[in-house]
Amino acid sequence: MTYQIVLDTNVLIAGLRSRRGASFELLSRLGGEAFEINVSVPLVLEYEAVAREHARELGLTHADVDDVLDYLCAVDGRSSIFGGPFFLTRKTTWCLRSRSKPAAR
Length: 105
Description:
Layout: E1 3-5, H1 9-17, H2 22-28, E2 35-37, H3 41-58, H4 62-74, E3 86-91, E4 93-98
Parallel strand pairs: 1-2
Antiparallel strand pairs: 3-4
């Protein structure tokens, strides 16, 4: 059974701040089989705002923050939203892209 989790923003920041502790351990297991993270546009926007605010103290550039957020969106475990299989893509604008082929007409 794969657990479905949502990372609180403070867990993300703590995991980026230090390689010790449970927060980093969770981040290091992203993309594995123990659990899947689930994100939403508002949540990732919150991650972005807070991570950019703390980027300097975390030793990250804004490009690094963008890479982290892109990865979080890529490993998002969302399997069904609005009646179909979709995933989040974060490239300048937000969009939902289908994981399945479009229906034949």
